[in-house]
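The methods section describes the discrete structure representation at length, but only in general terms. Since the whole study asks how a given chain folds, the encoding of that fold should be made plain. An entry of this sort, consisting of the sequence and the corresponding backbone structure tokens, reads as follows:

. . .
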Amino acid sequence: MGNPEGARVPEEQRLGPVLRRREQVQPGTTDQRLLDTEGDSEWVHTDPWRVMRIQSEFVEGFGALAELPSAISVFGSARTPAGGPEYEAGVRIGKALVEAGFAVITGGGPGAMEAANKGAREAKGVSVGLGIELPFESGLNPHVDIGVNFRYFFVRKTMFVKYAQGFVVLPGGLGTLDELFEALTLVQTGKVTRFPIVLFGTAYWSGLVDWLRDTVVAQGKASEHDLLLFHVTDDVDEAVELVTKEVGR
């Protein structure tokens, strides 16, 4: 109970681990100040508060995904039209990964991500979507069974890598390229090991591969060995076989 108004102020006050005496004694209690205070809300936009939000996103992600079975992250464009050949390839890949014993993790959006989640769900596997707060995204697709929405890209990308044993990358745009090169860098620098990366769609990826070989490697910006960090294929079974082989299945 708090002291009634007019009550004698104590000579000594303990507030958690803090001791206050004489004129440093504060009126009321910590709980009282917490519950009664109304004031400026700008503190919720400060960096210390953001640190707490970031921490909470890691905690929520770890808690939601810790008990997943072995999983593969599948990336690709949110703009891939439903029913097209790239979409149908995503569905087949999602199914084939489940049949090989994997859960399927995507960014949870539409397009190629939706296709892989759809294939995983139709094969009665675990279909996971890790969404991101964006002004133009419409939330998680309906084929996601376990979904986590993130504010911060870097937290989300940690989850993609931490809870997957490999990546399958369908044709995609800047976000897909970001995730692809993040994974390549982690493998190249030894931050992750035994982590297969498969690019699906030789026609789409051939220009990038040529540039890496003929410009980046040729000018000494990367080594010839770095071109072995990924595989390129047009075959669903081969993509799954490459992932399965490299993770020891």
